[in-house]
Amino acid sequence: METRYYLSIFPQEALIASQLTPEKFGQYMSTGRKNGSYEKMIFIEIEGGSGSYFDWKHAAENCVAHDDGEPKHSLWMSVYRVLEHVPLSSLKELYMVTDDGRSLAIAPRPYSAGGSNLPFWVYQELCPVRPLVVSAYNPSQFSQHMTHKDVKVAVPKIAFADLKVIDFDNLEDTGNVGRTYDTNLAHLKDCIRSVTSAQVKKVKNVERSRTESFGYQTIKSGVYVGEGTDVIEYPMPSVDQIRQNHFDWGRSAMVL
Q: Whole-model pTM?
């Protein structure tokens, strides 16, 4: 059986070897038969064997089928500083898994700047840190800022999603944005004013860690993995595309 390697970026950073296909792996991890958990998960399949940080030999020797032929479901290889040691060139498809085990596969592509009708973005950082932030930077600029060696609070690589923004002048009809904007709107507005004013600060934390409110229906353009100016984009399908091609996932993810 083929051994595959999965980089989990949400809700936990990890590298896991498995003999399961991505869809079956996602189902196993989100609805695991032993741990009783039911939670969404985002992971990326990667090419194995890159670099010397991970023990690829250990994985090859221990990610083997059981005596009865049952495939090895998971062999945890690392849960610390994983993303920074995975080359961007080894990233394959990203999978968004719902809490009942349905997967949406998204192919990677180089980042392409798109227009925005707002002077700011709302980002949910996913890995290796998880604040909710607002920024005047587009995804490429945000990646450069967050991974720049001269920034005092920086990370080697970062995975994040850009989120839909509610209409602050029409709170009764906010659209399908989940629970992200349920609380503390005054603080959010203050953060937006901070990054869109003439002040130097262009990134502002809204919440240090509030990922329980993060849902797939909240994602606007996609998920990004960045290292400096090198940014991989996983574009979110449109609602129409999800309705036509991924209906069951869309209902489960509360996108439809």
A: 0.92
